[in-house]
Each structure stands twice: as structure tokens, then as C-alpha cells.
Amino acid sequence: MAIYVTQIGKHRFICGLFWQSLSRPRELLREARELARKIDSDLLVLRTDQSTAQAGFAHSAEGARRGMYSLGAVVSKTLAIEGAYYDGEQQPVHNWLAAFKLPDGQWAYFAVRDANFLPNGDFAGSKEEVLERLHGDYGLGGWNVVLGDPELADYGFHNFDARGIESLIPRRKNGEIRVHRWWGLQQRQVRRPYRRLAIAAGLAALALGGGMLWQQRQRAIAERERDQALAAMREKMLHLAAPAAQPHPWGTQPAPLALARACVERLAYLTPGGWQLDDYVCTGAQVRYAWTRRDSTAALLRAEVPGATVELSGDRASYALPLQLARKPAEALLGRDEVLEPIISQLQLMGIAHQLASTPAPIQPAGAGAPPWLSYSFKVDGRGLAPTTLAAMLERPGVRIDKLVYRGGLWSIEGVIYAK
After folding, report:
1. What phi and psi, each to the nearest 5 degrees, are found at residue 374?
2. Pair (148, 259) in one structural domain
3. Residue 291, exposed/middle/buried by CB under 10 A (0-12, 13-18, 19+)?
4. Where among 160, 187, 214 does a domain terminate?
5. What is the rounded average pLDDT of the residues 264-283?
6. Structure pTM?
7. What is the pLDDT of residues 131-179, one digit of tens each?
8. What is the pLDDT of residues 207-260, one digit of tens each?
9. CB 386 within 8 A of CB 308
């Protein structure tokens, strides 16, 4: 990973560390230093979150410096403490993606699976580079939440939490950053006091005459082992950094018509206790209601929907329920024109407003050739039509619905069309 240093407030933060898990709880620093020596890194930082321990590695030859703060370590610690809002509530989060705009205009990207940074999950670059990584990892599925700047809210990520990088850095009451020493990179090798070095030098001089041959042999063995370990670790890093084979994302979702029917069947609480429905959002994972109080009370709402969550203001409330549907197996895709043109023509014929846009192709390993599929995001305005009618039009190979929204008495549908 390329090292990138940015300034936030008065402090310098670093992105692009290579992360590895640690397995010896009582010897974390020693284990981290051993790993650093094997992969030829002279700087490291330790993080311990949610019963997991990792070390992030960097090298001073790439611009890293002792005392620079790991931005990834800061963000992960904040999320470990605060959790994140997804599936209708604030809760612990172990699988997350994040993309944040930095004060200097570049973007930072983080990918954490099972509370561990992926080896290549700490990255900074242009917005285009970060979005390419984000879309590629997002396609693997299994993420609890995607965090990022509000300007990414329209990209259609499931469980998106709009937050800026500043909101994830702890602050003092006066607004300054509350720095913690463990954020900082430390040197792999501990510097010995001068006196101890002098003693060691004296002993080495005494042993020099009789032990020169033995030292040369040991040095040759150590250098050979180091070269072998370094070559193996670099090979592993290259393997890990290469994008994994992408699963078929359309094979992880229910069929359009099945989802639409389930969403319509579960639309039950339009005016519970006199509260007004603001919107109803249905995905393959859950349904979620949001209401405004009007002239009613929280007690009347709870009498009809006991599980509703009322905001502290007392004027807004929400309610979420899980939704489990059978996934439609990944079918063979049609060509771009074969799948897009019939849908567009039918929508035009019926006078239905729609939006269609190309999305970034999945990341391919170097030399792998053309991407395995194309994808296009879509949004359809129901114009008073039943969502099952719209879904029936979308019941084609490679077409999947991400969410259905009921607002103001009208439905809209968002999803993705995949083509070869």
C-alpha cells in the first residue's frame, strides 16, 4: 500500500499501513516487532479493538515517520466505542467500509471485516480511486454499514451512515484533537541507553578475536532466513492486495417480484395512533417505517406499535422489522442492449419517469482482461402504479431491486441491472 500523510488540525495522520493480526495477547509488541523485521518494516502501530489485536506496518523510506498518527486506528477505535447506526438502531459494528474526504481534498478509505482491517484495507487517494475500491469491496457483500461523507449518500449503498472524518476524531472541550499516544507510529527496534551500548560494544570487542568465524556464519544464516521470510511475506502481500474473485452480486438478492410482493404485504402501519407516515422503506433485509406525530401522542403510537422507537423530541418515531426472503440463484446475464432496451421502452410507453446510470465495474486483477459484467443503477417513479406491476416489468435476468420506498402515497423502486 502507498503511504499517504495528511494534516488534520495541528497533527499529521498517516494512511496506507499494511495490517496484520496478532495472536499472542501477552506479547503483542514483541510479536509485532518480529513481523516488522520479517517484512522489512521499521515502523509500526498497535490497535486492540473488540477483543482483536492488529499491527499496522510502514517504512520510513516511503515517507512514514515516528510519531505520525494512524488515521485508520483512530477511526476504528471510535467505531469500536460508539458503534454505528444500521438496521434501524445504534449497535456494535464488526464489518464496515468507510470513505472520507480529507481536508487536503484527497480521500481516505478503510475496510474492516470481523473487526480486523483487511491487509489492504487502509488506503488514501483521489475520490475516483477510493470509489473504485469502495464499489469493488462492497460487491463482496456481508457489510453491516457503509460510512462516508454525505455526498456519497446518492450512490445507493445499503445501510449508509453519512459522517465526515472530523466526527470520528475525539476532541477536547475547546475543539482541539484529543491525542492518544498509542495512535503514533513507533520504531521497530528499541534504542538502548548509551551505557548499555558501551558495555555491549566492549563485550563484542573481547569476543571478536575468537568468535569472528562463528559470527560470520550466523550472519550469513540470519541474512538467508531474512531474505526467505521477506520474499514469502511480499508474495503474500501481493496475493492479498490483488482483488479476490468477485461473486455474482445478483445471486445474493431475491427476485424483483418476490421482493415487491413481500414489501406490499408488510405495509401495515399507515397512521398508527394518529401518527402520519413519512416514508416506508423496504429492502431484502428489512422494512422500516418513519412517522411524524401530528396531534397524537407517543402513548397512542406505542399502543398500536409497541416496538416503535420515539425520538427524544417526541415528534418523530421509527420502527424496523427484519425481512428474510429466498435468494434467486445467479442466472446467466443478457447483453447490455438485450436487457436495457426492453425495460426502457416499456417505461417510456407507459410514461413512467426513470433514472439510469452506469456504475463502476468490479476491480479485476492485473492482466485479467475485461470485467466479468457491467452494472447500471436505476430508479423508477411509480406514478401511482402498484410496485408489483413495476416489479413484473423488471423480472428479467440480471435485474435486482435494492429497495422500494412508499412516500406520500406513491411508490418508487431503486436497484441494479447487470449485463454481460
Report:
1. -105, 155
2. no
3. buried
4. 187
5. 93
6. 0.49
7. 988 988 888 788 999 999 999 988 888 899 999 999 999 999 888 999 9
8. 555 556 656 666 666 567 666 665 666 565 555 444 444 568 888 899 999 999
9. no
* Residues 127, 8 contacting (CB under 8 angstroms): no
Residues 183 and 262 in one domain: no
How many structural domains compose the chain?
A: 2
165/69 same-domain check: yes
Task: Give Cα separations from 142 to 65, 137, 188, 263 (angstroms).
Answer: 35, 10, 35, 22
In a domain, 334, yes or no: yes
β-bridge mates for residue 116, sequence order: 113
Q: What residues make up the domain containing 49? A: 4-187
Biggest CA pair distance of the chain: 95
Q: Rounded distance, CA 137 to CA 119, Å?
A: 13
Residue 58 scores a pLDDT above 80: yes
Mean pLDDT (the chain) is 85
Residue at a domain's end among 134, 159, 187? 187
Q: Round to the nearest angstrom and report the end-to-end CA distance of the chain.
A: 31
